[in-house]
């Protein structure tokens, strides 16, 4: 699943390409979207802005209509010039929103819906989402409170809960816990205030560091991230994806274990993050 920094950059690229322009063509293979388009056509509306909230991309159109998409594990948004060859197969296309200058193509997007203003305000996923790490404002105190409220849960599972903190995925989960020297399987109630504060501030720092203004291409779903401050691509992360390799701090082999109801992989150093 793409993490908050990837979704943020995707929304920013879409906004730069599409905002302020009129929809010239709309196409979708998703019945729920085509039904809305038939009743209230999207063509002719202006794209006002594209933003991200946690792992949701929100494309706002004139007339009070918003397209909410969620990438889940395999979805992605791409931007192309008119007539440019797509990098993915046509059968993977789910949504096309084209202006005179660009076309945005959503591939393998599993969650997509049009919402009016009332629907946005009442939407359960949007209404209950936790503090957005990459939002214009980030309430660290509220994030700490929500973590504390999951007292019996393992801290790694809590960090992935989007109703606690919005934006953290499996990569940052392992990296943040390592940076703060917290064992992933520790119940929240055993952690001190300093440890929980470290998790929140470190997550904020890591994600903010990976939304720099330089975009590698017009393809929006590109996952560039690092937490070690090292430029070498093979050394950008502390523990994630490094099972059985030596810890960059102490040399102890990194461990890996499936964790939580979704059996997500957790990486940690047993010496730097003792039980």
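-> sequence recovered:
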């Amino acid at each position: 699943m793409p993490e908050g920094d990837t979704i943020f950059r995707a929304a920013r690229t879409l906004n730069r390409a599409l905002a302020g322009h009129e929809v010239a063509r709309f196409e979708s293979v998703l019945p729920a979207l085509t039904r809305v388009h038939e009743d209230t056509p999207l063509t002719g509306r202006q794209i006002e802005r594209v933003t991200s909230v946690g792992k949701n991309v929100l494309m706002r159109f004139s007339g009070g209509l918003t397209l909410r998409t969620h990438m889940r594990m395999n979805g992605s948004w791409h931007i192309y010039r008119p007539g440019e060859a797509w990098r993915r197969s046509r059968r993977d296309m789910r949504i096309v929103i084209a202006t005179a200058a660009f076309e945005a193509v959503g591939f393998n997007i599993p969650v997509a819906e049009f919402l009016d203003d009332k629907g946005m305000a009442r939407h359960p996923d949007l209404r209950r989402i936790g503090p957005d790490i990459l939002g214009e404002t980030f309430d660290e105190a509220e994030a700490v409170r929500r973590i504390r409220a999951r007292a019996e849960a393992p801290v790694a599972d809590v960090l992935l809960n989007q109703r606690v903190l919005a934006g953290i995925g499996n990569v940052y989960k392992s990296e943040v816990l390592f940076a703060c020297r917290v064992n992933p399987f520790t119940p929240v109630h055993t952690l001190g205030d300093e440890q929980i504060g470290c998790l929140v501030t470190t997550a904020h720092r890591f994600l903010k560091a990976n939304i720099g203004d330089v975009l590698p291409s017009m393809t929006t779903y590109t996952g560039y991230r690092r937490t070690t401050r090292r430029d070498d691509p093979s050394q950008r992360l502390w523990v994630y994806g490094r099972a059985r390799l030596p810890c960059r701090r102490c040399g102890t082999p990194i461990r890996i274990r499936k964790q939580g109801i979704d059996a997500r992989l957790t990486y940690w150093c047993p010496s730097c993050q003792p039980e």
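Helices lie at 4-18, 31-39, 117-122, 124-127, 140-149, 155-160, 170-179, 193-209.
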